[in-house]
Amino acid sequence: MELLEVAMIYYSFHHDYLLIGELNDLSKEEQKERRNYMLAKKLLNPMLYILAGSLSLFNSVTSWVVISIVIITPCIHRLIGLIFRKCKFVRVAGADFDLMFGNYIDTERVECFSDGVFSIVATLLVLDITTESFPSATDVTRNGIDLTVLQMWPKFLVYAENFIVIALLWFIHHSLFHCIKKMNQFMLVCNNISLAFVGFFPCMVAILNKFADEPKKPDDNTRLAVQCGSVVIFMTSMFQAAVFVAALWKGPTHLEPKVNPAVSKTSHYHLTLKLAILPVISLSAYYIAITASDFIIYVAYHVAVFVTPFLFFALKFFWGGREVGVLRHDVAMDPDLETWVPPPHRSRLRLQKNFVGDTTLSQSLAC
């Protein structure tokens, strides 16, 4: 696939009508420079794959470490661009450099990819029931279909719990990206790592079905299964929170004004609390799995999962109804510059839609 993209780059630069306007307006020499920049970025992953394949002949662990570097290649691309530009003694403007080396990342593509991962994982959750735990014809003949299915209730319980968690993670992801303007490489890596843990959920369902689906006989395996589930949920939600922290650090270029604490503390705290619920719940479940008895661990994990959605409802009920979009007395937003500037002696005011054009701070967060 990577080599096909290299071929597409070569083909596109040999047919000018396939290029975007910014590239098509450049001279042939400048187009060649841009093409070489793009190829330098695209050849990184194939080189890592070839290196990993070569190392696998001697040490499989080292080869897996090399392959794992692919996850952070978006962060490496900019470094490659700086080195390549310095070695070639060519100056490229910031906007062109970002275009070539992916510093500007379209949030719509990230959302589409993320939605695809969530939908696929949510569909795969049921496979452990239909393949590994599905009753045989003998069981149905002996006990009847109703009793046989009823005896499978722990597995349906695990499926329902994990589907709820996936749905909540998707909801948080949707709320988060509703407030992000632009992404950089670090944010993209954090989002991809979060999705990687989301992809682990079908395996987590299999572990819970095997070791934590017997309410009458919880044991040390139940403890380990709950710890595994808690770690996966915690890591998934924490890397989602890391995306928000990175956007907050970058400021108005990456974050919508409505969730900037300098502009609207209410909306900012609302989103922050959303992002904090799952890490706190999963960390609490992990702590209980270390200290409590086996039966308490079993009960606490299931109760925590079903209580979590009600925490989101409570947050929406008690916090979401508050006023949003109220500026601090010392901060205002210039709609043309998209920056926050301190106005001279301005009292608290509510930002109305006709003051900001298409951008409104009175819009609430995603429900």
TrEMBL record:
Belongs to the TMEM175 family. GO terms for molecular function: potassium channel activity; proton channel activity. InterPro entries: TMEM175-like. This is Endosomal/lysosomal proton channel TMEM175. It is found in: Membrane. One of its GO terms (cellular component) is membrane. The chain crosses the membrane at residues 48-72, 156-177, 189-212, 224-249, 269-289, 295-319. It catalyses: K(+)(in) = K(+)(out); H(+)(in) = H(+)(out). Keywords: Ion channel, Ion transport, Membrane, Potassium, Potassium channel, Potassium transport, Transmembrane, Transmembrane helix, Transport. It is a multi-pass membrane protein. It comes from Stylophora pistillata (Smooth cauliflower coral).
